[in-house]
Amino acid sequence: MSDIIIGIDLGTTNSEVAVVQDGRPRLIEVDGAPILPSVVGLADDDTLLVGQAARNQYALYPERTIASVKRRMGEDVRLPMGEREYTPQEISALILRRLKQAAEEALGQPITQAVITVPAYFSDAQRQATREAGRLAELDVARIINEPTAAALAYEADHKEPKNILVYDLGGGTFDVSVVRLSQDVTEVLASHGNNHLGGDDFDAKLVEQVTAHIKEHAGIDPSDNRPAMARITRACETAKITLSDAPFARIEEEYLLEKDGEPVHLSLELDRADYENKIAAYLDETLEATHIALKGAGLTATDIQEILLVGGATRTPSIQQRLEQELGLQPRSEMDPDLCVATGAAIQAAVISGQQVSGVLVDVTPYTFGTSAWADLEGEPYPYTFIPLIRKNTPIPVTKSEAFATTHDGQRIITVHIYQGEDPDALNNTEIGSFRIEGLSDVPAGNVIVTTFSLDVNGILHVTSREKRTGLEKQITIDNATARFEKEELEAARERLAALTVDASPEDTPSASHEALQAQTLIEKAEQLMESANAEDKEDLVNLVEGVRDALAAGDAAATEQAVAELSDLIYYLES
Ligand code: AMP
After folding, report:
1. Residues 10 and 75 in one domain
2. What's the domain range around 424?
3. The pTM is what?
4. Does any ligand 1 atom lie closer than 6 A to the CB of residue 241?
5. Does ligand 1 come within 6 angstroms of the Cβ of 193?
6. What pLDDT was estimated at residue 485?
């Protein structure tokens, strides 16, 4: 059996190990999970704990536990743990030894060599300390590679064309952004920037602040000095934060959290995504500034970048992806698990060193974007059919995403949920693949919250559920084969739209005028469909408004067209909802 070289991502918060087998990279599980928390501790009876067990005791016994040792690598310090002190290399070696053991168990053979990743900014002393940790764990470090390089290799294992890649890496406690130049033979980090003390833990801290203030206000007690209570709050906030990446609300329920005057204090609080996003916005601004500094350092601008890759668990936060797309005009790639792609890249580098052929990583992703429509701004104007994507193209499947919507009229008892597949910001230019109505909503003012959830499984089956938040009233639909069935119809619909465009748009029309014409045409078709089932009064209104749109179009009067289109779309929206 040839010597296998493993790839290791030795992270500040978590570590992972991977290997290439039969040409394909695969992650190796440690204690039943793909991620090993980078925490080492001593239990009450001095048993050595590495990983989750050590992490579990961290908040309660910090004097017996060491976390984030990576921050100390290369320093000449001794870190106390229980009765003794250890060098950072020794603690890192304990993590490496656990990863090596897991690989030996999974592969059934001794492992002696590894490729280990380090941040691009690591100094020579920090790299040497990492090598030494490897030696202490009886691992010969075949190569130390930069984390952004590893991420680029994971995404582009079989790259052909030279590319400039931006790697945005936001973990639990550190942020790095690097510009990597990938070419056939050389992979080079052109520039790197970041903040060693910024990450998902800071996002948790914002929620912990909110929860602490809530407890003070509602229970009249400050939990800050109560260690077990703060440990529970911190953990609950991290879980809620992760929920908010996929859903618009998250509930925190912690029973018997504290005692006040002999009475138990329970915590029950709902967190809201929009509110949470405001709390972390300043951190995201900081990461975007760093991104521009890295680009400048590489002598490049946003348009020179061909790919943005997301690394680190905290990049699952949807507003990070949105902000990067707005800022750089390129949709970041996130089809690989952002926690695992550095280890995967290390394994690919390891395989290359040992002369193995490597093919790309296989991930099941959705080839289309799925979403719904709502009243929202489109090109700066409120528009009833603005496309709201829930599951974006290239998202790994299975996936579940939810979004909150609100009713627009007082006393609105019915809504129609339209489900579209496509990429256009105007939902009417996408393919409608299903719709349903929910009737009997509460008789309340506008703003009644409806949570819509899209779940797409590996077989391309899409479940969509909409739920009135205050009552739980819900309706759902299942669309089989959502990722394949509509290709032909979509093609035909696109052809029709193009045909409409050439008929309606005269050669001197500006692009936005053609867009208006296209929108008008689609609305007219929609109005005609509605006329079939409308009552006499509504039908007359529809006929009049359609006439108005046609007249304005014929007169070539852009302002009048816009006005007439707005009136017609208001009526259609009203009749449909
Ligand atoms: P890493 O150091 O790369 O393992 O990243 C760990 C950080 O990612 C922690 O702060 C986690 O709470 C955070 N994280 C993990 N999953 C998610 C998620 N789905 N949404 C937001 N943050 C997440």
Report:
1. yes
2. 370-479
3. 0.79
4. yes
5. no
6. 46
